[in-house]
């Protein structure tokens, strides 16, 4: 049970790191001189990547939980 809690904590920390990277990337985009359309498209691309990686973290966590609980 403790290992499952630890795995969930690590997964949450990973999600926070992913969201922080998204925030940093969006801030960098806003600093550029490109058009608003390009900025919005880049933000959408970054959000899609963020969503993909958060889904990966969740799926890895689910596998780990099952693995830990079957031991």
Which structural category do the helix and sheet elements fall into?
mainly alpha
How many individual helices?
A: 2
Order of helices and strands: HH
Mean pLDDT across every amino acid position: 95
Largest sheet: none
Rg from alpha-carbon coordinates: 16 Å
- Sheet-strand content, in percent, reads under 5%
Number of strands: 0
Overall spatial form: elongated
Percent of residues in helices:
over 70%
Amino- and carboxy-terminal Cα gap: 11 Å
Note poorly predicted spans: none
What report would you give on this structure?
The protein has about 70 residues and is mainly α. The chain has two helices and no strands. Helix 1 (about 1-30) packs antiparallel against helix 2 (about 35-70). The mean pLDDT is about 95.
Task: Chart the SSEs and their pairings.
Layout: H1 2-31, H2 36-70
Helix pairs in contact: 1-2
């Amino acid at each position: 049970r403790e290992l499952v809690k630890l795995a969930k904590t690590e997964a949450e920390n990973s999600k926070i790191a992913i969201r922080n990277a998204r925030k940093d990337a969006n801030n960098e985009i806003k600093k550029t001189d490109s058009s608003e359309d390009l900025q919005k498209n880049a933000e959408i691309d970054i959000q899609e990547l963020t969503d993909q990686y958060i889904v990966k973290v969740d799926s890895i966590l689910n596998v780990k939980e099952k693995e830990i609980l079957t031991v």
